[in-house]
Amino acid sequence: MRFLRHSLAGLFLVSLTLGLLVYAGVLVVGAVQERLSQEPGIPPARERVFVVNAVVAEPGTIAPELQAFGEVQSRRTLDLRASAAGRIVEMSENFETGGQVIQGEVLLRIDPVNAEAALARAETDLRDAEAEERDAARARDIARDTLAAAEEQAELRERAFQRQSDLQDRGVGTAALVETAELAASSARQAVLSARSAEASAEARVDQAASALSRAQLARDEAQRDLDDTVVRAGFAGTLADVTALEGGLVAANEQLGSLIDPNALEVAFRLSTAQYARLLDENGRLRRAPVTATLDVQGLGLTSSGEISRDSAAVGEGQVGRLVYARLDQPRGFIPGDFVTVTTREPKIDNVVRLPATAYDASGTVLAITADDRLEVLPVTLERRQGDDVLVRGEGIAGREIVRERSPLLGAGIKVRRAGPETGTADGARRPALPEVPAMVQLTPERRERIRAFVEASTRMPADMKTRILAQLDQPEVPAHIIERLESRMGG
Fold first, then answer.
1. CA 205 – CA 140 distance, rounded (Å)
2. How many angstroms separate the CA atoms of 445 and 255, rounded?
3. Which residues touch 113 (CB under 8 Å, ≥6 apart)?
4. CB 65 within 8 A of CB 437
5. What is the mean pLDDT of residues 186-207?
6. What CA–CA distance (Å, rounded) separates 293 from 344?
7. Class for domain 77-111+230-260, per CATH?
8. Could you report the per-residue pLDDT of 399-439, keeping only the tens digit for each?
9. Which element (helix H / strand E) includes 224?
10. CA separation for the pair 163, 399 (Å, rounded)
């Protein structure tokens, strides 16, 4: 009985468990079916609003700035060459690469012994020619006096002959006396001819002496030039470069010994595209004498010099494009030939253009403007110039409109936007200007100038060429303020 009772209790529990499982399954299936039969709920759609930066388009008259890169060159360079061959016996202390010389300074001397001997021989020949000329002149004078005497003698003999002829006609004289007088007159005339021949010979001797004197003078002058060529002098004040001569060394005629460069006569050569070059022409098709500024940036310490466009190349070089333009520098302090500089110049002014960030302009030639209901509108514009990170554009209906500063693939016509920040919508904005600003210049007191100069000269971490350029800037009446601030920050003052 006990076994049967336990068996029935177990069977009851198993049946109850199965019933509960079936009931749970029915509940799950019913819940799933009810869920599947329901329609999904869609939340209400909301329009997305993008935040943009904007700038007001303000048309105006702007002179675009053209920027190029060029190389500093010397307009006045002299090759120092040996006009005579020989040994160098004397050299100036300044005759070295980088040496400063003045006009007319003796740079070196070549052994002048042979040239001096040639000059002495030429002077001796000249004295001989002068003596021969004097002797020929005296001989000519004597020949002229001899001719005058012969002519006088011939005249006397002719009168005597005429007198004997008259006496014979009157029956007083004889034929023998007439013949004797006639022979004497004939001999006198013959003497006149001989005297004239002697005079002609004397005149020819004088001419030959004059020619010999001229040749002797030319030989003397040539020998003097050869002697002068043994001395090499500076043709103008400047700086020496590429010096190769050594004292005691042998040099050949026309051998290059170095170069002399005028540091105050520099120019910069820079290449422009044909379109840029065309914008610098005037109404007559000639290159305008536009002012330029050359800037050499050396570790943040910039050297600047103003100048003016002077000329352009006559032809396009082989394998080159565009135009090569030259500009003369007014005060090239600190610049040396070979410097790679940035050249900026102003083009003619353009009316009714708007300056915008380059990020506001897309490849299709449009910008995005914000409408009154804060939606975007596409405006077509014409690109006039690119100015660094800015562009100059013009277009209809753009004046006074708010233009999106930064384009994005998410932005397009009809999209609702919201301006970011109270400064948005102003023409200034928080952007860096595309055109470089003119560095501020300051005047230094003598004490402050000397203190900075002493720091630069004593610096061991500063390269020599940078020292030279900074000292050249300090010699000017006004010095860029950013250079002074940078140096004084290093000085701790």
1. 8
2. 50
3. none
4. no
5. 86
6. 5
7. mainly beta
8. 889 999 998 888 888 899 988 855 444 334 333 333 344 45
9. helix 175-228
10. 129
Residue 89, both tokens:
């016996």
Where do the CATH 2.40.50.100 domains begin and end in the chain? 77-111+230-260
> What backbone phi and psi angles, to 5 degrees, belong to 331?
-130, 80
Adjacent-strand bridge partners of 129: none
Query: The tokens of 31 are what?
Result: 């819940």
Q: What is the pLDDT of residue 445?
A: 83
Numbered ranges of CATH 1.10.287.620 in the chain: 114-228
Cβ-based burial of 438 (10 A; exposed 0-12, middle 13-18, buried ≥19) = exposed
Task: Cite the DSSP H helix spans in 71-174.
Answer: 113-169
Every domain of the chain with CATH number 2.40.30 lies at 262-346
Q: In what order do the strands lie in the sheet with 100-101?
A: 77-81, 256-261, 238-241, 100-101
What is the pLDDT averaged over residues 360-364? 90
354 residue type, one letter:
V
CATH pick for 114-228 out of 1.10.287.620, 3.90.1720.10, 3.30.1780.10, 2.70.98.10 = 1.10.287.620
CA distance 150 to 194: 9
User: Would the pLDDT of 379 be above 80?
Assistant: yes
Give the residue, 436 or 223, on which the prediction is more confident.
Answer: 223
Beta strands 50-52; 417-419: pairing state: parallel
pLDDT score, position 42: 56
Length of the chain: 493
CATH class of 262-346: mainly beta
Maximum distance among all Cα pairs of the chain, rounded to whole angstroms = 234
φ, ψ dihedrals at 26, nearest 5°:
-60, -40
pLDDT at position 215, please? 93
- 298 pLDDT exceeds 80? no
* Cα–Cα distance, 294 to 477 (Å, whole number): 19
The pLDDT assigned to 369 comes to 92
Q: How far apart are CA 184 and CA 327, in angstroms?
A: 92
The CA distance from 236 to 403, in Å, is 60
